[in-house]
Structures are given as structure tokens and as C-alpha cells.
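Methionine aminopeptidase
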Amino acid sequence: MCIRAGPYVGLAAPPAYTGDNTYTEAEIDRIRAAGRIASRALDAVGAAVRPGVTTAELDRVAHEYVVSQGAYPSTLGYRGYRASSCTSVNEVICHGVPDDTVLGEGDLVNVDVTAYLDGFHGDTNRTFRVGEVSEEADQLIERTHEAMMRGIRAAKPGREVNVIGRVIETYAKRFGYGVVRDFTGHGVGSAFHTGLIIPHYDSAPAYGDVIKPNMVFTVEPMLTLGTHEWEQWDDGWTVTTRDKSLTAQFEHTVVVREDGFELLTVSD
Ligand code: MF3
Ligand code: CO
Ligand code: CO
């Protein structure tokens, strides 16, 4: 079996993407196949989450599953990133790098996996509870998932993509949560990030791209118990809340249909 690596591996940045963000049914089938592998990798990671496990071990679980399916872990070698997943613990908003950090009871860990198969990417993440977490953290996780689903349901042909963030921010504000603005959803498919931006806050009139049937993109809100402001570690990747408040995230790759949507990053 031969695994095809992403075309950007070894380059400082991916080659410019010139296509649009809508796909044929045959192409959507291939995004779904990649997305299923990413989702099943997260199932395997979830089964391995427990107090005492390291984020590097979770990354290994994700890596082994993706390659066992003949797919390539898209993050490996993407803009110089050196792991097969992002593992973001507690105050880490996104792009946490797997290392020897040992997870403890009460921690939150988000794991983000993208699989590349047959020329197409499927991108998904989930936030896992390590053992039992605080009530506050538990609700943050639940409501971040709900915010993602509300954003996805708001995506309909003819509307602007900024409807998604408007719905997510309105919901998050009910609970006083911070809504991260500077990391966004994105077009995904034949490129990992196509250039289409999907904000998770109310950005109107900016980001007025009109949603079309068969458009594919991610929705991946990051909500916090405090500020939406962030800072980055010297590793050039890890992004944390500025006030070190807890944060959670969920992500699906979705295709918009004439009459609704389909999740492309599901396990069955
Ligand atoms: N999977 C992430 C996303 O949702 C991107 C990770 S890029 C990396 O868009 F280089 F940090 F791995
Ligand atoms: Co993404
Ligand atoms: Co992702």
C-alpha cells in the first residue's frame, strides 16, 4: 500500500489554491471518505483519553489509525508542523503540539485530525474530558458543540457565510463566553485550507461570500470562559487564551445542500 503525502510537504507554504469551494458528487464522496477516517481516528483517540496519558500518545493513536487506512495525516509537514494531530489542553485554544505533557483528571483536551485520501482532505476535531471535569468545563464543552451545530444549521444556499458566526456568537453570548475571532473555519477539499474564511463571530458585512449548493467548508468554533484574546508560545504554534481561561472547540467538515447540510466527518 502506498500513501500519498500532501503536496505541500517540504514547502514553506502550500501551493496557491485556485479552484472554488463547490464540488461534484464524486468529489464529495472522496471528501467523505477522508472525513470518515479522520472521525474514526478521533473515536480511537477518545478511547485512549484517560488520566496519565500523554498528548504524544494520543497523537500516535491518531497517526496509526490514519495510516492504517491508507490515508495521510494532513498536518504532518503542513507549514513545517511536525505531528499528525493538534492536541490543545485547557487554556490552549488551538494548534497545541503533541509532547510529553501528561493529562490529569479534570483536564480538557481537544484533538484535531485531518486525513488526506485520494487527493481530498476531511478535517474534524472534538474536545474530550479527562476523567471528571468541573461543571463549568462540562457546560463549556456541551455548549461549544451546540454552537457548532447551530452554525452548521444556519448555512443555507443564498445566505452569506457570515450568518454562521452570527448564530454562533449570539448563542455563546447567552452564557458570557468569549468567541475566538482570529482562528476561523475554512474551505476544505482538494486543499487543506482553500482560502474561503468562515468566521465564528458576527462579522457582517465582512465575509459576505454567498453559500452555494455543494459548497464544502469547516465550522470549528472556539469558545472560552473568559477573553477571546490570545497569545502564542515561542514554538510558533500553540495558541492560548490571553487570560489563561479554559477553552473548547469542535469541528466538522460539512457540505451544504439545496435543502440543508450533510456532515462529512462522521464515523458510520
Ligand atoms: N486542522 C486545523 C484546522 O482545523 C489546522 C491545523 S494546521 C497545523 O484548520 F499546522 F496546525 F496542524
Ligand atoms: Co479546520
Ligand atoms: Co481541524
